[in-house]
Specification:
- A hairpin with a 3-residue loop joins strand 3 and strand 4.
- The chain is an alpha/beta fold.
- It has 4 helices and 8 strands.
- Strands 1-5-4-3-2 form a 5-stranded mixed β-sheet.
- About 10% of the residues have low confidence.
- 24% of the residues lie in helices and 35% in strands.
- The two termini are 16 Å apart.
- It is globular, with a radius of gyration of 16 Å.
- Pfam families: WI12.
- It comes from Zingiber officinale.
- InterPro entries: Wun1-like.
């Protein structure tokens, strides 16, 4: 299932780069649940998926890394220069994307929901710290670690 989910996500990015709206639409459920974190002006993928913007004429999504992280979840990240870093978390069920989380200029750490202890909200720094150095994260942003990169806010996604 994880390999198939990754393939669905990769085919979506490929369809968007070709401007193939029919193929992009086929990769997604009719009622995709969407959530965004970042500056409102940076909701580029939402604009592309709703037809407000043409991916070929505006912001281009070129994933640098696409990873199946467990269950239905696939995470993709990319960046263009110093000021445009994005992470997309996609849930793929029954061969179509059903849920989408978009993060712009935000560092993301993905963990299994079972790794959270004590309940309540937590910051990614404290949660990752409790897991130990690199211990247990299913996926972690790479771009913020690049040399010369400015500091980014960090979030934790428990799946």
């Amino acid at each position: 299932m994880e390999t198939k989910g990754r393939g669905v996500v990769e085919s979506l990015y490929d369809a968007l780069s070709r401007g193939d709206a029919a193929a992009a639409e086929a990769a997604m459920a009719e009622d995709v649940e969407w959530w965004f974190h970042g500056p409102r002006r940076c909701q580029y993928m939402r604009r592309v998926l709703t037809g407000e913007a043409d991916e070929r004429g505006g912001f281009r999504f070129r994933p640098r890394r696409v990873t199946a992280v467990g269950g239905p979840w696939v995470v993709a990240e990319g960046w263009e220069g110093k000021h445009a870093y994005w992470v997309h978390a996609w849930a793929v069920e029954h061969g179509v994307i059903t849920l989408f989380r978009e993060y712009f200029n935000t560092s993301l750490t993905v963990i299994s929901h079972g790794q959270l202890r004590g309940g309540g909200a937590t910051s990614s720094t404290s949660a990752v710290g409790r897991m130990g150095a690199g211990g247990g994260a299913l996926w972690q942003s790479e771009a913020p670690a690049r040399e010369g990169r400015r500091s980014l806010p960090g979030l934790l996604l428990a799946i």
